[in-house]
């Protein structure tokens, strides 16, 4: 059976973490550089509209080694999703993501 859209989205979230975490050092964590590169390449609309300061505020609290583990990564994505949802609701509560 074909994976549902949500199952596909979860698989993609994991795949993207793994794609960037293998670039430098620890394969189970993203460095701050890897996280920034991921945001620029994988979230281009967000990164163009966001200042460096607001990106820093949205980033999870980095460990003393400046790395982000998978839990911190999904927390970052959850914060971003909540922010996007709030913006969409403010713009048009009756038409979130083009649905009526």
Automatic annotation (TrEMBL):
<dbReference type="GO" id="GO:0005634">
    <property type="term" value="C:nucleus"/>
</dbReference>
<dbReference type="GO" id="GO:0048306">
    <property type="term" value="F:calcium-dependent protein binding"/>
</dbReference>
<dbReference type="InterPro" id="IPR034325">
    <property type="entry name" value="S-100_dom"/>
</dbReference>
<keyword id="KW-0963">Cytoplasm</keyword>
<keyword id="KW-0539">Nucleus</keyword>
<protein>
    <submittedName>
        <fullName>S10A4 protein</fullName>
    </submittedName>
</protein>
<dbReference type="GO" id="GO:0046914">
    <property type="term" value="F:transition metal ion binding"/>
</dbReference>
<dbReference type="InterPro" id="IPR013787">
    <property type="entry name" value="S100_Ca-bd_sub"/>
</dbReference>
<feature type="domain" description="S100/CaBP-9k-type calcium binding subdomain">
    <location>
        <begin position="6"/>
        <end position="48"/>
    </location>
</feature>
<dbReference type="GO" id="GO:0005509">
    <property type="term" value="F:calcium ion binding"/>
</dbReference>
<dbReference type="GO" id="GO:0005737">
    <property type="term" value="C:cytoplasm"/>
</dbReference>
<keyword id="KW-0964">Secreted</keyword>
<dbReference type="Pfam" id="PF01023">
    <property type="entry name" value="S_100"/>
</dbReference>
<dbReference type="InterPro" id="IPR011992">
    <property type="entry name" value="EF-hand-dom_pair"/>
</dbReference>
<keyword id="KW-0007">Acetylation</keyword>
<dbReference type="GO" id="GO:0005576">
    <property type="term" value="C:extracellular region"/>
</dbReference>
């Amino acid at each position: 059976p074909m994976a549902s859209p949500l199952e596909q989205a979860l698989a993609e979230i994991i795949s993207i973490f793994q794609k960037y975490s293998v670039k430098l050092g620890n394969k189970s964590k993203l460095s701050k550089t890897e996280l920034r590169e991921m945001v620029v390449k994988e979230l281009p609309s967000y990164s163009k509209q966001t200042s460096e300061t607001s990106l820093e505020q949205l980033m999870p609290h980095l460990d003393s080694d400046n790395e982000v583990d998978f839990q911190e990564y999904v927390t970052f994505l959850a914060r971003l999703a909540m922010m996007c949802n709030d913006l969409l609701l403010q713009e048009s509560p009756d038409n979130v993501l083009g649905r009526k």
